[in-house]
Amino acid sequence: MKIWEVLKAENLGKRYGVKLYGIEQEVTVGYDGSSDYLTIKKETYPFYPLKSFYLEAILALEFEEAKYRKLEFYYGSISDFVYLLLQHKEKGELVYADFNGHRFYSDTVTMDGAYKEITGKTKAEFDYMIKEQEDAWEEQKKEHETSIPKKTKYWREKARGIIKEDKLDHWDEIVPIRLKDLYQGMELGCCLDLAVLLKEGAFEEAKEMLNNQGHSGMSYGLVCAMLKEFVDNGEEFLEFIGR
Known about the structure:
Blueprint: H1 3-6, E1 15-20, E2 23-31, E3 38-42, E4 45-48, H2 55-60, E5 64-65, E6 69-70, H3 78-90, E7 95-99, E8 102-105, H4 111-119, H5 123-158, H6 168-179, H7 186-199, H8 203-211, H9 217-230, H10 234-240
Parallel strand pairs: 6-7
Antiparallel strand pairs: 1-2, 1-5, 2-3, 3-4, 7-8
């Protein structure tokens, strides 16, 4: 359907799907600011003045009358998403919405169908998987907390001969703190492994190792700060990698 077929008084208020600026959008036929001329309007903007398009582009646009109204879903779980669509179904409203690249419609969506398409599992299977993961994490967390005294001794001893002698007391102080933190002491081993290479002057190898240690932005910054604090040429290495 072309623009001249859309901009008619009998189409006032009707919704159409169209690709604008390369993006699929939903527009409504309505009056421009003067209430004299019909134009295509979008919810987030007052209207699209036709003069904002080149004539050739306007004539090339293809419109399709929309059976469903687009619904924006910004955040929440899959269940929240499905319940929202089902609420519109109960009201007899035809809407659609996208969740992580998957599109669902209010008149056909089901809870298990949405979970299956998005996760590959039914809701019950997905909930069971999450419960297993949470239980495993809690078990691992308890085991780690029980092992902190033993790990504290290990990391304190391992640092001898690797980090600055005058920083050993500080190292001993932070070890249990790091073990109780989010990364459970992962950064202690990362720091010492890098320190061994830096003592040999192997900056390129240390750079590669640092990049391959699987850091988040936070843990990367933490390891860099530890290198600066505890390793003789740590600050020089940070300059080498542009930190």
